Amino acid sequence: MQRGRIIVAISNPSKESAKELLACWYREHATQYLLRRLTQIAKAVPWLTVIPPMRLLRMRKQWGSCSPQGTIILNPSLIKAPRECIDYVILHEICHLQEHNHSPKFYNLLARHMPDWKTCKNKLDAMAEILLTDETF
Questions:
Q1: Could you report the per-residue pLDDT of 27-36, keeping only the tens digit for each?
Q2: I need a surface site. Which of 9, 107, 114, 126 has the fewest CB within 10 A?
Q3: What does pTM read for this prediction?
Q4: Does domain 15-133 have CATH number 3.30.2010.10?
């Protein structure tokens, strides 16, 4: 990364090899960054005693989900979104560990920990078509 641009340097350049290297770079950085954000947010949530496990899964229409076993599943494309949007998705999924639905109780819990969640959701929704259809990963 140089001056806000990703530079791919390879000895035998081809579109396919550059695309593969870029996908690996994004996935690696997504894993590291999203895990750091998950850890920080989870530590601030009073109902968690351990950091929930996380895994990345490329999804065409979702930013994240929470498995019945408590694993936070995040779309690696989320790495291209602004931090507040990333935090919104992570907190949304963490709230599902307490409330396993989208009831008013769930949204009250989300709003208690992120009062501006609707703004973040709207911002992310506005970028969804571009970020979710990007074939980088």
A1: 899 999 999 9
A2: 9
A3: 0.88
A4: yes
